[in-house]
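Late entry, zinc ion complex.
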Amino acid sequence: MARIIFSGGKVFDGQDVLPGDTTVVVDGDRIVQVGSAVAPAGDEDTLVDLTGKTLMPGMVQCHFHTGFGPDAGNASPYLGLNMPPAYLGMVAAKNGQIALDFGVTSIIGSSNGDLLDVCLKEAILLGLTKGPRVIPCTREIMASGDAADGDSRSWFMGIQNHGLARRADGVEEVRQAIREEIGRGCEIVKISISNGHGSHPIPDWNYYTIEEIQAAVDAAHTRGALVRAHCPSRSGIIDCARAGVDIIDHADLIDDEGIEAVLKADATITPSLLWTDRFMSFAGSWDFALGPFPIGDGFPESQAKAEARIEAIRRDSEYTLGMFSKVREAGVRLVLGDDYGFAMMPHGDYASEMALYVKHGVEPIEVMRWATRNGARAMGKHGADLGAIEEGKLADLIVVDGDPTSDVEVHRNPANVALVVKAGVIEKDLLSLQ
Ligand SMILES: [Zn+2]
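Prediction complete; structure with ligand written out below:
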């Protein structure tokens, strides 16, 4: 049977750069050999010369909103309601194609309306469109009065259960919402724990009680689904980790107790600091002579009120950055992913998040570990055979010009991603192999 044989360049296996003479062999959907002693290529085999290039595992985007895109999904608070579902489906298909083009072979959904993630997954499996493997997410399960719940702003439109938001109060409603959404094909549940991360200051109270969080985790885990939580608050991080939430999104106000709880639970954190960074830049450059600050709380704000809010967000952001190295050094599993497609950060802008972490002291090779090995771990059972170049693993592989383990900027231009292989199938080929 025809094999794909990679040799002659750098191999990053998801953890380390392997010795220079390493050859990697793919047969069918699996990596069958990694080493220097490889049987000679047959006539049918495809040879990939890695000179000047790096072979690495396909990357995982762990916080992915399939429906966020051009003129769609950006109008808070009903993310996804402001455009027709058919249009959002096309946005989702395009976002999947963009991700694959940049070398992302797996995505973990992070809440979407209209069952977009489930539909995208099925469409890719059927060959209707190209894209990464998808772990489809539910809508964002949120309590009444959540900042993104229609009740807190345009309550008069009665749209609290549309778009990205799904309202559920109390243990029974939370269970029911999760049972229903998993029944429709979702494999990860998103719950909203507190306000904050980027556009609002973080309160010291949570939308959901520990009982509601526990009910969400139990309902999901019983059905083999993962749980993730939008969770900026200090106590929310601790509650979520102790309840068994698998992915804690943002974790802005994590403290020592939170770090300990997250480590004990073996949970994953998506810092997603790019959105906060972009928001602070935008806020810092806003000219109030043009009008009220446009990312607000429903009503137009006075300049004084907006400035006070932005200042509070800045303090939260500085705290998060101050804790960042401590969280890393404690050994918390961190991954990549952010609100791409939302304002100021289009899908495909993944290198900006990577570069931001490098700017804050993370070695490029460590960022690549987050993008591959850690991302696969965050996928739970779905990632057991992913995120590493090892014999027996699924062949989700990319060939990148240059060396991303020393310079993450190579990921800024998809032209640098010469080859994308997903489960042994060549999905993108700039090397004219076929
Ligand atoms: Zn998000």
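The radius of gyration is 22 Å. Will revisit in the morning.
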